[in-house]
Design brief:
Helix content: under 10%
Radius of gyration: 27 Å
Number of strands: 31
Structural class: mainly beta
Strand content: over 45%
Shape: flat
Length: about 400
């Protein structure tokens, strides 16, 4: 009896030592950056279109403006106490573009304690500002964020667009391997952990090599080197925690025979896979089609790829455990040709559309082929000419 107790005690100690040697997932911290060209780093960014008003906001203390007429707007962000920050546009001359911007950078609801930010570039219809610094007061202390602004004015049409002017990146360790992680506030609302079925409303994440440009959607999951993880991203983007996803429920999606690659996303994140025998697997949830692709070789061995993207609400589907989801995507693709008569001359437009009105792109050995030609001939053949269409 004593010997058996000793054996079980020994096994318990060994198990405790082994489990204590498994490192717990910890937050991994990233570095903050700001720039006027975040869109180039991210490969594209969404924006907030701010509603402009010439009416002075009630209860907001204002600075001493240089001109009589100003524009006022709110930038929406959940990081601010009131859910937004006030902005104002002023100009140094009575005529011309607005070239001065005020923003409630400390979130106190006032503009009279702010210094005007001058436009760093002026064009015929545009003024550019940024990166403009704001400070959010949160529970853990102050958080820095930067914005870029683009003001447009032409024939009494005035627009103000806000773009994120910052991102986080840094090296992290995942499954014992060093990876580079980058976070972007894609929807420009001041936070870095937004998930959404609407692609423009979810933030972006990269995990891989430092020179990678493969952006994924921030979501419940992210796949890295064939392994599924659950990311926990700080609201301000300063750190990330990744835990291997266990006990995930999957469902099947069945695709038409020609589809060679498929991508869909939503609150679960962004997934890309090559179907095997027309079938792929996705975690249970709601998705929107990101793109489908068909690759073929012609008789000369030339590689062609057709890709459909930009889906409407028709591209939304559900994945469940008990029922296979079948999608009708891909061919046939239509090429509508439209003609327009204006001032005695015709203009022609050829477009490519999928069955769900998605946009279609076509490449030949990964390069866009020459534009198609258009032949116009009348009934008696006295007019017979061929024209080259142009992209754009």
């Amino acid at each position: 009896m004593t010997k058996r107790t000793y054996i079980w005690l020994t096994i318990g100690i060994i198990l405790f030592v082994l489990t204590s040697q498994v490192p717990a997932q910890e937050e991994q911290w990233l570095q903050y950056h700001s720039s006027r060209e975040v869109g180039q780093v991210a490969g594209g960014m969404y924006y907030q279109s701010l509603e402009l008003s010439a009416e002075k906001p009630s209860g907001v203390e204002l600075p001493q403006f240089k001109e009589e007429k100003q524009f006022f707007a709110k930038w929406s962000t959940p990081m601010a106490k009131d859910g937004f920050l006030w902005l104002s546009l002023d100009r140094t001359h009575k005529y011309g573009l607005y070239d001065l911007l005020y923003i409630d950078s400390n979130g106190n609801g006032r503009l009279n304690d702010e210094k005007a930010v001058a436009a760093y570039r002026m064009e015929q219809y545009y003024s550019y500002f940024g990166p403009v610094k704001v400070i959010f007061q949160v529970e853990d202390g102050p958080v820095t964020y930067h914005l870029n602004f683009q003001f447009y004015s032409n024939n009494d049409r005035n627009r103000l667009y806000a773009f994120s002017g910052c991102w986080y990146d840094g090296d992290i360790t995942l499954a014992g391997t060093k990876k580079h992680c980058v976070l972007f506030d894609y929807n420009t609302n001041g936070t870095f952990n937004d998930k959404s079925l609407e692609f423009y409303q979810c933030d972006r994440i990269r995990i891989g090599r430092k020179d990678d440009r493969d952006n994924r959607f921030v979501g419940n999951f992210i796949e890295v080197d064939g392994t599924l993880y659950r990311p926990e991203i700080a609201r301000d983007g300063a750190c990330i925690k990744l835990t291997k996803a266990e006990d995930v429920e999957f469902g099947n999606v069945r695709l038409p025979e020609p589809i060679t690659e498929f991508s869909a996303g939503g609150e679960n994140g962004l997934f890309i896979f090559k179907p095997e025998e027309r079938v792929g697997k996705l975690p249970v949830g709601k998705y929107r089609i990101n793109y489908w692709a068909i690759e073929r070789k012609d008789e000369k061995g030339t590689q062609w790829e057709m890709r459909g993207s930009g889906f409407s609400k028709k591209g939304i589907f559900d994945i469940t455990v008990d029922r296979e989801t079948e999608l009708s995507v891909g061919e046939p693709v239509v090429f509508p040709l439209t003609a327009q008569l204006r001032e005695g001359s015709y203009s022609f437009r050829l477009s490519m559309r999928g069955r769900d009105e998605e946009s279609i792109s076509l490449t030949r050995d990964k390069v866009r082929p020459q534009a198609p030609k258009l032949c116009i001939k009348n009934d008696d053949g006295t007019y017979d000419r061929t024209f080259s269409l142009e992209y754009g």
